[in-house]
Amino acid sequence: MRPSNRAADELRAVTIERNVARYAEGSCLIKFGGTHVLCTASLEDKPPAWLRGQGRGWVTAEYSMLPRATHTRTRRESTSGKQTGRSQEIQRLIGRSLRAVTNLQGLGERQITLDCDVLQADGGTRTAAITGAWVALHDCVKWMRGRSIIKDHPLRDHVAAISCGISNGEPVLDLDYAEDSAAETDANFVMTGGGSLVEVQATAEAAVFSDGQLHAMLTLARAGIARLVDLQKTAVA
Fold first, then answer.
1. Looking at the domain covering 14-236, what would its CATH class be?
2. Nearest to residue 214, comparing CAs of 158, 164, 157?
């Protein structure tokens, strides 16, 4: 039995609340059980300096955790003068995931930044951030279209992410912290609404894993992400 008493293929309760930040061009609060992430999209009317004059835009992301998102207070990264390697790795993953489904030429020479701030962490913060950031990005480009800043919708597909793992020898979906911290294998899958893979991260923590176990996790992830995409569609309908 899983610590949460969920079935192996069962997601935590997932909710998506849009328009939670008054001044952002797009925003949502996404909850994967006890993991809560605020995602905001901010539009800048210019691309990064290295992209100027190329006729296309950029989508990037920043990720952080509030000091009491976890059981003990974590020092703000701004006070130390640099981000941790974990934060840099996660925000790059978020940016790559969103760019995979965005027509950057369709943005023109503009940049959209997705800020993903973890209010409360209980495992799967990066997967929740990717799934929520897509909703915030969708609403940002909708805002742009409503003001005739762009003509066509530049999002080609949905993108969402979910964690999987091998726990007590069995593949399971959407690990919370109690399960993730004790799992033999930890994996994260990012996929489009059409089912294509964007990124796979899989690591043997307490034991190596087989091809069959990797395939079993992929099967769980594919079904879980399909449900998340349905929630995204409902949220933005």
1. alpha beta
2. 164
Q: For 192-206, how does the pLDDT look when each residue is reduced to its tens digit (9 = 90+)?
A: 999 999 999 999 999
**Domain ranges within the chain, ordered by starting residue:** 14-236
The answer to whether 6 is a known ligand-binding residue is no
**DSSP secondary structure string for all residues of 106-156:** GG-S-EEEEEEEEEE-SS-HHHHHHHHHHHHHHHHHHHHHHTTS-SS--B-
- Cα–Cα dist 59/190, whole Å: 17
The reply to whether 169 sits in an annotated binding site is no
Judge whether 81 is annotated as a binding position: no
pLDDT of residue 101: 98
Q: Return the exposure string of 148-167: e unless at least 16 CB atoms fall within 10 Å of the residue's CB, then b.
A: eebeeebbebbbbbbbbbbb
CA distance 100 to 98: 5
Sole residue written with tokens 């296309």 = 56
> 57 among the known binding-site residues?
no
pTM of the full structure: 0.96
* Residues 73-110 as b or e (16 or more Cβ within 10 Å = b): eeeeeeeeeebeeeeeebbebbbbbbbbbbbbebbbbb
pLDDT at 13: 98
